[in-house]
Structures are given as C-alpha cells and as structure tokens.
Design goal:
The protein has helices spanning 18-30, 36-39, 90-99, 158-166, 190-201, 214-231, 237-259, 266-292, 297-332, and strands spanning 3-5, 47-48, 57-58, 72-78, 103-109, 125-134, 139-145, 151-157, 174-180, 212-213. It is of the alpha+beta class. Helix 8 (266-292) runs antiparallel to helix 9. The radius of gyration is 22 Å and the shape is globular.
Length: 333
C-alpha cells in the first residue's frame, strides 16, 4: 500500500474562483522567494464581460498557470484518440503522474464527487486538481470548492473519480500536469508591472462584444449591482470577493515596490489600504443584500466602487511615473 502527497497550500491568497486558487496553492506550497516576486505583475487588469454565462468580472486574464515564465512546468495528455472514457483506467493514470511529481488537473462530472453540490443529483462538468493519493483508504487528495461554498482540501474515492471522468459527456479527455520549477530563481518583472498598471488605469484590453477592461470594468461592475436591485435578483458574491482580492493585491504590490526602493508616497499606499477596506465592506454589503434583498444596498455598493475608482485615478499615475523613472534609470546604467 502506497501513500503519496505533493505540497499544496489549502489557503491560496486568491480564491474567488477555483481556477485562480489551483495554481497559487501549488506555488505558495513550494516557493522559497517572496510571493510578490511572482504576483507583482499579475492580476492587475480587470475584465467585465456582461454576456459571459457564468463569470462577468475577472482579474485572472492571461497565463493563469504561470507557464510563460516557466514557474509551473506543464505537460498534457490528450487521451481522445487512444482510449474511450469507458475503457480508460483513469485512476492508474493519475496515480502514475502524481508519483512522478506532477499535479493533475482536468475535467470531471461532479455528480460522482462527494461533497460537491451536484453529487448524486445531476450532471455537472467542472475542473479538478489532485495533489496526492492514499492506497490504504483508496482516495485521492484534492483541492476545490465544496457545497458549503468554501475552498477545501478533501478526498475523492478512487471508484468515484473513475466514474466522474468516465461519464463525461464529451469526446475529448485531456489531463494537464503541472510541476513547480524549483530551478528557477524568481525575480519581479517590473517592466510588465508598469505595462499592466498602464492598461488598468487607461482601461485598455482586447475588447470583444460588450466587454471592457481596467477601471472602466470596475465601474461596470458597480452598475451591475444596481441592475440586480432593479431586477430584484441576487448578486454573485464571487465578484465582490474577486474585487477584495484585487485591492488586497494592489496594496501588497505597492508595499512591495516601496520595499524594493521605489519612492512611492506613503499616502498613496495608505489610499490602497483604504480601498482594500472599502472593498471588504462592499463584499459584506453584497452578502447582506442577498440575505435581505434590501434594494437600497446595491446603490451603496456602486458608490463604494466609484470611490475606489476615483482614488486610483488620482494615485496610480504617480506609481506609473515612478516606475517609468526607474526603468529609465536602469537603461542609463
């Protein structure tokens, strides 16, 4: 009987969405450098897409698995042309990869995953992450959201995992494998931090349809709240949680830049602290609105978002100017 577990942090810094939490749990459990060396240039821009069926507001816009900087190494198994879902021994495949040091990510039918909202009730296609196994209990160690609405480390019985993949209603079965790159010395990418901050302040992105980016996306989110009140529907709490994480990371980013010698005025950092608190208050208001359906609350939430936008429009240009000066100094050396 064998047991094997890869390092995984069950409390990733960002977890408004499961796909954000997965890679950060791997990185936080393995990293020896400052986490902000990885995140300084990440999760800066915001995206609002009103026509998206499940996620209208997001900050994880590119290279979600940190492959471009080779922080996470990746391999892929496309099993479509080699096995059918009924024939494949997915338990064996997952165990073998885990034993060789690879985290396993893919799609499953949560109707067969204990603890999930869909378990035993209905077909639901969703992603999974497995980081270990235990042959004594015949379970995989997994991470993800459960029906209580919280991110957990939990177990999936081998037999249930096999069924969850074998019953997928699709032709393609693809596994993604990830390994932390321990040979990489992590350093912050300040030029990309500058580029991303400019895009955020200028509301620049690859617009498609009715989508928008940056500070404009935050304002659109505020309007969505008032629309929910007008239509007397609930607000998706993931959006305000994502906003809280965006402001938390913006505050930590400015502190990190300051600690690394960038002369950011302390009142700019203080304003970022205030914005984080305002975002946290807004998240709590959203929870209160969903419980009480008091229609005046979303307008207060919208005003809070407008306040945060105005603060950033007045303070971020100074941060951008300081970064530009720093980049010019490095060129002159």
């Amino acid at each position: 009987m064998a047991c094997f577990t890869l390092p995984y942090d069950g409390n990733p810094l960002l977890k408004a969405y499961q796909y954000m939490a997965y890679p950060l749990g791997i990185i936080q459990a393995n990293i020896k450098d400052d986490l902000m060396a990885v995140l300084c240039d990440r999760y800066i821009n915001c995206h609002f897409e009103p026509d998206h069926p499940t996620i209208m507001f997001d900050i994880a816009l590119y290279d979600r698995w940190f492959k471009n900087r080779k922080i996470l190494l990746t391999e892929t198994d496309d099993l479509t042309n080699t096995v059918t879902t009924q024939e494949a021994d997915f338990v064996r495949l997952i165990r073998e990869r885990l034993s060789n040091g690879w985290y396993v990510n893919g799609i499953c039918n949560e109707e067969f995953i204990p603890g999930k909202n869909a378990f035993g009730r209905y077909y639901y296609r969703h992603d999974f992450l497995v980081y270990g196994y235990d042959d004594e209990t015949n379970t995989f160690h997994a991470a993800g959201y459960l029906k209580d609405g919280f991110f957990h480390l939990y177990e999936i019985p081998y037999q249930q995992m096999q069924k969850a993949i074998a019953t997928l209603d699709e032709e393609a079965v693809v596994f993604q494998y990830y390994r932390f790159n321990h040979e990489l010395h992590l350093t912050p990418d300040f030029p990309d931090t500058l580029r991303q901050l400019k895009r955020y302040v200028d509301s620049v992105g690859e617009n498609t349809g009715n989508s928008c980016w940056g500070i404009t996306a935050v304002r659109k989110l505020g309007k969505l709240f008032t629309t929910c009140a007008a239509e007397k529907v609930r607000i998706d709490n993931r959006y305000t949680e994502c906003l809280v994480e965006h402001k938390l990371l913006m505050r930590r980013r400015l502190e990190y830049l300051y600690d690394n010698g960038l002369p950011i005025p302390l009142d700019v950092i203080s304003s970022a602290v205030d914005n984080q608190r305002t975002a946290e208050t807004t998240h709590l208001l959203g929870i209160k609105y969903n419980k009480t359906m008091k229609l005046s609350i979303p307008e207060t939430m919208r005003k809070n978002l407008e306040k945060m936008c105005v603060v950033e429009e007045s303070t971020m240009p100074e941060v951008i100017r300081q970064l530009e000066n720093e980049m010019q100094r490095e060129k002159n050396i």
